[in-house]
């Protein structure tokens, strides 16, 4: 990784909130289209011991990114809640589930 990439990752992680079994990306306005776009979220999910809640409000998640996140969540037996409101801004109608 280039030092610029590391710096961006450090800044991004500094904005991520963790507490009480909750991992939050709320309000980060992430645009996650591909599995690669979702890699930061996936890595944080995988590292989080005892994950009970995931907050992704105010971010936009496409099909491929959602699949990557879902795969990471499959390994989290303590997960109870996912807060996913306001997640389709900027998406085509065909990308939004009924």
TrEMBL record:
GO terms, molecular function: GTPase activator activity; small GTPase binding
Q: Please give an example of a GO cellular component term from this record.
A: nucleus
SUPFAM superfamilies xref list? RNI-like
The record's Gene Ontology biological-process terms are: nucleocytoplasmic transport
UniProt keyword Transcription present: no
The record's annotation in InterPro entries points to: LRR_dom_sf, RanGap
**Protein name, UniProt field:** Ran GTPase activating protein 1
Lineage of origin: Eukaryota, Metazoa, Chordata, Craniata, Vertebrata
